[in-house]
Design goal:
heterodimer, A: 211 residues, mainly alpha, Four Helix Bundle (Hemerythrin (Met), subunit A), B: mainly alpha, Cytochrome C Oxidase, Chain A, two-stranded antiparallel sheet, 22 helices
């Protein structure tokens, strides 16, 4: 029995056990490199959260968070994003059990749709707030709100673009080594965005709704 | 909205430095135009020369599109050398201004002077210090850990071209428009739209963004390389110290660069979208910028200082022919510095009104850094103790560093005391202090490393005579240029002063001016040294590859190394692997059998992504939106197209590897082993005589 540190066990979706050692090691470092990138991305979000904490009350006489946030839409957005994380988990499971590209593609499409639904709701929220005069130019608070939440939204958008590209690659190459590595990376990215959203939900929305 | 506005954004005739000088021919504008002429002329001469030599194809296919870490490293160094020349000339102009402008306007106006110190600082930190060290790490680190390349060669190429793109923006700011007048740290609200409507701060924001993107990706790349690509048996405590410092620097880049990215992004949001992060009104708070900036800025200091510490460790050990003293303590000290560097950022703004206990905490944390640094200095001294020390250029720089750096450290302890800092904050004392750290701590180290590893990279040694002249200029020049600044700073002279009003300062400013000229002469000596060394290369060839009787794996192959570095990936069983191989007669032996080697093919994607993003950011600076869109489309499109390319590697057959290795082994067998005291003579072919 090999130790649990063997790459084929750590990245179960890759089914690498038949590949030569060099390939396994390369795949291992490819995925690890993406983890390191996510850590630096986490530092970036940490800085945004820190700035957000300092401008909580810098509304400059304009609308406040409690005026603007809609609890039910934040809850729905959370639900959508968490669901999309689950459906992306199904992508990984399909890869692991070599279900073939159709299953993988199907779950990518589902994830894409749910993720797009999240973005649509978020965009709708933003437009409503703009109509109320809660714009980024209005106050330091809303500058930071829109940059922080917008940055997360931009990440989600990038994830969706990435899903389209991965769908095309799946159609062109099938689940070959590069595609599988990138699907695993995309999964890490997508789950990471969930984690960030959970923090946004707690720190920004829940805290903001306290009157 | 005219058609010109859509095409050229904010660009007008008067954006051109030449037109400004034509319309308003003051000395200050003429100096600006001359600088622009040098930038344009330099580019034209370079293009002409490359065309005349018909070198474009060679340059493109062998260098610009190369994914080989060694070539990328060399390109980083060449780029940094060009930027160093500019920033050092600016330093001379700054010193000249202060030497002349005592109760008069001097040679450059206030705005121009402010541009000078802003570009000098920005270039020296982002486009000289970081590229020099990243270049050195790129070249040496994979060789030291027994790897064929870095983890992500394509990403490495993108990082290079993003950094060069930032440099191109800096150069463009000489010719079109004006650079920021807000210093290298670009504090708002001064750099906000309300006070600075021009393109200056935008140039700063976007060129720094290019550099920080490149540095972040390099950090990820190097960290993964060191974690995952070490040769079998190369355990953590067997890593050469330069690799250790590279790892710490990479980690610092991964964690410290994001705050800078966020700070510049928020400033851009204020300037482009009318937001209020750091403005004076509507809830903006400039202290957020200051905190974010120095959350990056202080670790940045150690990003610049730690790799040279690694260089000194290698150099001192090699030229003392001794095992590095206190290896474990050096590793711990390096890590301790890396971690402590995140706990001291507030000492850059003791005077900005936080409470005394907070200042005390950060003051103490700052002083603590002196302890691991002191450990290092002692370790290097003990390494030399009873060693066979050869005082060549690299050792002179190392010893010059130890003496000078300790003085700088002392003034650092003074500055770390908040009440004292209140007295000398933002005076020339501070300028003297950080130049006292960075010139020996960064520049001397790079020069020492350049001298030490140059024969490995190019197969011949550098001129010792010109090396000594370089050392004389940089050592004496430093003291002349910056000791007077300590005196003036204690006397209360504010930094960044365009005009001085006290005639008794003149002797000090003149001494500093002489020092600046001497430092510039030192740079000239480096270039002359390179020229002379290339001329004499037939007498200084070291093809066997171990000219200094050194200890690490990077010396265990030919000089210059084959593109795949190691014919066979080495097995490491101890620290200083090559030393032990020489000792037990295991060096210069053929492998049992050779295998095919897979290497990445060259790719023009790196340069396309880098230049695309540069064009995009240039469009942002000038509000040329079509260019911004086009540049982004090129960068993004290239990345996408590349992801569909599965044919990215090529194979070097085992027979070719074996043949190359055999040729090198024959060369080594034919060479005469050279004792250390003859290593600077033409007899040295790169095969060291075993002397224990």
């Amino acid at each position: 029995m090999a130790g649990v540190t063997e790459p084929e066990l750590r990245h179960a979706g890759l089914n690498l056990s038949d590949d030569p050692r060099e390939v396994r090691e390369h795949v291992e470092s490819d995925v690890f490199g993406f983890w390191v990138f996510l850590m630096s991305d986490a530092v970036m979000f940490a800085c945004l959260f820190a700035v957000y904490a300092t401008v909580r009350h810098a509304t400059a006489g304009g609308p406040t968070a409690a005026d603007e946030f809609k609890f039910h839409s934040a809850i729905w957005e959370t639900g959508l994003l968490l669901t999309s994380s689950f459906t992306y988990g199904m992508v990984s499971i399909s890869m692991k059990h070599t279900r073939g590209r159709l299953w993988i593609a199907a779950f990518i499409v589902v994830t894409f749709c749910v993720g797009a639904g999240f973005l649509k709701m978020e965009a709708h929220d933003f437009v409503t707030m703009f109509h109320d005069g809660a714009t980024p130019e209005r106050s330091g608070y809303f500058s930071c709100f829109f940059v922080l939440v917008g940055m997360h939204g931009f990440h989600v958008f990038s994830g969706l673009v990435w899903m389209i590209l991965m769908g095309i690659q799946l159609a062109v190459f099938g689940p070959d080594e590069r595609t599988k590595v990138n699907l695993i990376r995309l999964g890490l990215f997508w789950h990471f965005l969930d984690v960030i959203w959970v923090v946004i939900f707690s720190v920004v929305y829940l805290q903001g709704l306290i009157r | 909205m005219t058609i010109w506005h859509i095409l050229l954004g904010r660009l007008t005739w008067s954006s051109l430095a030449f037109v400004r000088a034509w319309r308003d021919p003051t000395l200050s504008e003429l100096i600006g135009a001359a600088a622009a002429a040098i930038a344009v002329g330099g580019a034209v001469v370079l293009f002409g020369l490359l065309t005349y030599l018909r070198a474009w194809r060679y340059l493109w296919s062998e260098w610009l599109t190369s994914l080989d870490h060694k070539r990328i490293g060399i390109m980083y160094m060449v780029f940094a050398g060009v930027m160093l020349a500019r920033a050092l000339i600016e330093a001379v102009v700054i010193r000249t201004q202060q030497a002349i402008a005592i109760n008069n306007q001097g040679i450059v106006g206030p705005e121009h002077f402010a541009e000078l110190f802003s570009t000098h600082g920005t270039i020296m930190v982002f486009f000289v210090g970081m590229p020099l060290l990243i270049g050195l790490m790129n070249y040496v680190m994979p060789l030291q850990i027994g790897s064929r390349d870095v983890a992500f060669p394509y990403l490495n190429s993108i990082s290079l071209w993003l950094t060069i793109g930032g440099g191109i923006m800096m150069m463009a700011s000489l010719v079109v428009g004006k650079f920021s007048t807000g210093g290298w740290s670009g504090y708002p609200p001064y750099t906000e739209l309300a006070f600075n409507g021009g393109v200056g701060p935008d140039y700063w924001i976007w060129s720094v963004s290019l550099s920080s993107l490149g540095a972040l990706m390099t950090g990820i790349n190097f960290a993964v390389t060191i974690y995952k690509f070490r040769a079998p048996g190369m355990t953590w405590m067997r890593l050469p110290l330069f690799t250790w410092t590279s790892l710490c620097t990479s980690i610092l880049m991964i964690f410290a660069v994001p705050p800078l990215t966020i700070a510049t992004l928020m400033l851009a949001a204020d300037r482009y979208l009318g937001m209020h992060f750091f403005t004076n009104d509507l809830g903006g708070n400039m202290m957020n910028f200051v905190n974010l900036f120095w959350l990056f800025g202080h670790p940045e200091v150690y990003i610049l200082i730690l790799p040279p510490f690694g260089v000194y460790s290698e150099v001192v050990s090699a030229y003392s022919s001794k095992e590095l003293y206190g290896y474990t303590s050096l590793v711990i000290a390096t890590m301790a510095i890396a971690i402590l560097s995140f706990t001291v950022w507030l000492h850059h703004f003791f005077t900005m009104g936080q409470s005394a206990p907070i200042n005390a905490f950060f003051g103490i944390a700052t002083m603590l850094i002196g302890i691991p640094t002191g450990v290092k200095i002692y370790d290097w001294i003990w390494t030399m103790f009873w060693g066979e020390v050869r005082l060549n250029t690299a050792m002179l720089f190392s010893i010059g560093f130890m003496v000078t750096f300790v003085i700088g450290g002392m003034s650092g302890i003074i500055l770390a005391t908040p009440p004292v800092d209140y007295m000398v904050h933002n005076t020339l004392f501070l300028i003297a202090h950080f130049h006292n750290m960075l010139i020996p701590g960064m520049l001397y180290g790079v020069i020492a490393g350049y001298y030490y590893w140059f024969p490995k990279a190019f197969g011949f040694r550098l001129s010792e005579k010109w090396g000594r002249r370089t050392f004389f200029c940089f050592f004496v020049g430093f003291y002349l240029a910056f000791m007077p600044l300590y005196v003036m700073g204690l006397g209360g002279v504010a930094r960044r002063s365009q005009e001085l009003f006290d005639p008794t300062l003149r002797p000090w400013t003149i001494v500093a001016e002489i020092g600046a000229l001497l430092l510039f002469t030192g740079l000239a000596c480096i270039f002359i040294q390179l020229y002379v060394s290339i001329k004499q290369r037939h007498q200084t060839r070291v093809p066997v590859g171990d000219p200094w009787d050194a200890r690490g794996l990077e010396w265990s192959m030919s000089a210059p190394p084959p593109e795949y570095n190691f014919a066979v990936i080495p097995q490491v069983s101890r620290r200083d692997a090559f030393y032990w191989r020489k000792k037990y007669d295991g060096a210069y032996r053929p492998a049992d059998h050779y295998r095919d080697i897979e290497l990445p093919k060259n790719s023009m994607c790196g340069i396309l992504v880098g230049m695309g993003l540069t064009a995009c950011f240039f469009g942002f600076v000038w509000h040329i939106w079509w260019l911004a869109f086009l540049g982004f489309a090129v960068a993004f499109g290239t990345a996408v197209v590349r992801s569909f390319n599965r044919d990215v590697n090529r194979v070097i057959p085992a027979a070719e590897v074996a043949a190359h290795d055999r040729r090198w082994l024959d060369r080594a067998a034919a060479a005469r082993p050279i004792p250390r005291h003859l290593e600077l003579t033409p007899e040295n072919e790169g095969l060291a005589k075993w002397q224990g």
